[in-house]
Specification:
about 300 residues; mainly alpha; globular
Length: about 300
């Protein structure tokens, strides 16, 4: 029998432990809580509750900070926080063109010389952050941030000069890709999933998609220990481009494992290093909502 989560226990965990933004997303996705007018975020109309919660993390420069990305707790704007903001607005279907445009305008002001977005900006040093948030020498574009941000912007049909340059960066990097890391592949796959040039995207995926397997970036065994990446992280939805790399049996086994990973308190946790109790709590709330979303999309919730 296929495993399913205890939805009521998850709802209780979210209510008792998650951030407001994650509670609002839970309401939006699972309780019919639009929180305002217009399911698509309604530029010019009353916005949704998720959009308003995301906006609370916005800085005066148009970017986002204040631990919207839980491991980067400095107030200053960061590309990773912009990516999280866009992700939440997209998943909630409360896309706000003004918030998005201001955030991408900010990305333009800090863009690497080649375009795109850096992994992290030096202002990360202004507050607490995970030890892996270290600015790269030379301030290069990051496949992780550039690809994920560009992917959601393309998914929404959002036009901006920053996106044009970021797209060029991604094509150039993908053309030369031979030994990526797992997190870099999140950016690559997000970009290829949504970039408008579908023939080129499909040809690129045919070459770089199998690197997930040949480079050992994905754990096919659901019980693999340590900081591993499940196939569901690269292909969370039935429509995900990377689903073609995995058998139905493999996906089913990982869905069983994901559903079975719910803790006694109703929430889910993570397998990467924990460095801050506040960050750990924030991640658990976010992941609980996101895992329910994935399980539901795959017929398990």
């Amino acid at each position: 029998m296929k495993k399913t989560p205890d939805f009521d226990a998850a709802a209780g965990f979210v209510a008792g432990h998650a951030r407001v933004v994650d509670r609002r997303l839970f309401q939006r996705l699972f309780s019919g809580g639009a929180g305002g007018a217009g399911g698509a975020g309604g530029a010019g109309g009353a916005g949704g509750a998720v959009r308003d919660a995301v906006a609370a993390y916005r800085n005066s420069d148009g970017g986002f900070g204040f631990a919207l990305e839980p491991d980067c707790r400095a107030a200053a704007s960061q590309p990773a926080a912009v990516e999280m903001a866009l992700r939440l607005l997209d998943v909630a279907d409360e896309w706000d063109p003004r918030l998005v445009s201001d955030a991408v305008d900010w990305l333009t002001t800090v863009a690497p010389a080649e375009g795109g977005a850096a992994f992290v900006e030096p202002t990360v040093a202004e507050g607490p952050h995970a030890p892996w948030w270290v600015p790269e020498a030379g301030h290069p574009a990051s496949l992780i941030q550039t690809g994920q941000i560009a992917g959601v912007l393309h998914a929404r049909g959002f036009a901006h000069p920053w996106l044009d340059r970021a797209t060029e960066v991604m094509w150039s990097r993908i053309d030369a890709l031979t030994s990526p890391g797992g997190y870099e592949m999140f950016g690559v796959l997000a970009f290829l999933q949504h970039v408008p040039d579908r023939p080129r995207a499909e040809a690129a995926f045919a070459r770089v998609g199998p690197l997930l397997l040949s480079c050992g970036l994905v754990a096919l065994d659901p019980s693999a220990e340590g900081e591993t990446h499940s196939p569901l992280e690269f292909a969370p939805l039935p429509s995900s481009l990377a689903r073609a790399l995995f058998s139905e049996a493999t996906i089913d086994a990982h869905l069983d494992h994901l559903a079975g990973g719910q803790r006694d308190d109703g929430g889910w946790t993570f397998n990467w290093p924990s460095w801050s109790p506040a960050a750990a709590a924030d991640w658990r709330g976010f992941l609980t909502v996101d895992n329910l979303r994935i399980l539901r999309a795959n017929g398990r919730a």
